[in-house]
Amino acid sequence: MEVLQQVKADERLRIIPVVVLTSSHEEKDKMRSYNFGVNAYVVKPVDFHEFVNAVKELGRLLGGHQRAAAGQREEGNVKTPLRILLLEDDAHDAELVQEILEADYFVCAVTRTQTRAEFLDALEDVEIELILADYTLPSFDGLSALRLASSARPDLPFIFVSGTLGEEVAIEALKSGASDYVLKTRLSRLVPSVQRALREARERAERKMAAEAAAGQREEGNVKTPLRILLLEDDARDAELIRELLETDHFVCELTRTQTGAGFLAALKNGGVDLILADYQLPSFDGLSALKLALSERPDLPFIFVSGTLGEEVAVEALKIGATDYVLKTATVEARALSAARAARSP
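The structure corresponding to this sequence follows.
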């Protein structure tokens, strides 16, 4: 109640809609809340669909305030709609998703599909900028949609918005190319997720253009420019194995190996890096901290974990934070065999 009093007493905050979610059935608490100006009073436990409806109504109210404010700030500016392909069989959920986005200043042009045929047809629209997809539908599924989208339009950000997405499925989805996933029970994450996915798509497009331009310069005269790799790895044998594996696939590598946070940061700031490969666990540093440093200093660089210890939860966290991919060291058995064979041939 004290927080509510402070909010309603502040001229800048009092226009914000407030819902009290409480376990108190006391009539006096309800009356006090309404006297202070709350918009709704919800007693726990509450039916999920009833709660979604309450949030939806609140979203309409909040969206009205925000859109009015946005209109005042952007007079004379015409916003280009964000063109979204939405795979969703529930009309109510589709409407809720659009309202949540539009309440946060997006102007949306949504194409809703429910079947594989509809999804494929909509995918041909070159103006689509974002895909949002439920995971489970009566005659189709989100993972199949992701594979179709990755094949036909790999440039499009793809976000799962679903009520049923376990950890294993989430990992598979992220590794298959999904930008993110948002649970329908936590739709407050939708707008930040969409903003990040769109930003990363723009950055990828810019990097692709820059890489194509650089490739054209590099290949003049048929001279290969080395791939400059910053490698965070404390095991010299594994570092050599990684180099061998890349160079057997026609890469020319220029490797900078570091083992500590200070060394990693110094190499990062020196520039001259095209790619980061990182172990997850080191004696005095860790890969997740390295990822956060890299995203802070050089968000344009691809970052791949190459580790023997990366559980499912950590993998999901790493991919969601911004890692490009992860590779388990157990997957390099072939390379180890190659290395052993070479060692055996040495005098």
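Residues 60-76, 332-347 have pLDDT under 50 and may be disordered.
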